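Risk mitigation, structural track. In case the binding assays with succinic acid fail to produce interpretable data, a predicted complex structure has been prepared as a fallback.
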Amino acid sequence: MEKEHSGMVVCPLTPVIGAEIKNIDLGGSLGQISVELIREVLHRYQVIFFRGQDITVEAQKDLGELFGELVAHPNDPGLEGHPEVMIIHADESSKRIAGEQWHTDVSCTHEPPMGSILRIFQVPECGGDTLFSSMYAAYDGLSEVMKEFLDGLTAIHDGAPYYTSVNLKIGRDDGGKEYPKAEHPVIRTHPETGRRGIFVNEIFTTHIVGLKKSESDLVLGFLFDHVRKPEFQCRFHWEKDSIAFWDNRCTQHLAMWDYWPEVRSGYRVTVRGDKPF
Ligand code: SIN
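Fallback model:
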């Protein structure tokens, strides 16, 4: 159902997660009311989408900065002259793409990003969708006994296994670089909505603190399967100059690489977050 707010039209993709905001120009200067409305819709739907946004890199950075400080990626050099802009690109020669498994961006840092804003400006003829899953819905879908068990637990999120495997795959010498590693609650509370959500993901979470390896593997395996249930998801089909803005504190996403050897290209900016609790 479409809803109009100060000229913007909000069209939910599902009742659980995802909404498209129409009738807005993200390249122009957004007033305080528009920013507050975008924030409100993001809090309600967790990931929001915009179409037809042919904006410059500078405008995309300005957009991100309305929501917080931008941060550079720990394993990606970024666009020349713009280290905080991550290049998302795949073509015939690619050996991998960013985000092929369900994940929360850079959860291995002590203060994982609050959100990411991705603009795709070259799309394949078909395919190349991104899937998003609501970690609120995934948490709400657990039994009370399981919630109680998970509530007091923390887990280790380690950047090294994933980033070294990426660098090996693309032949990038990381010069023995150290990658971020952090301990976070398995269930986190969103600092703005107060809702609880699952905060472990298969790219970065290596084990649950205090459990034996076999126990931790079992619980994490269950959670990794659980968070990808279709009823917690929406799926976004990109057009040229679509933008997605996801809240990293309550979602996971997966980029679908079903379009090889075609090209898909875009830029992502990432907004600083705070320590999960
Ligand atoms: C990512 O930021 O994980 C990539 C998402 C995408 O390319 O759709």
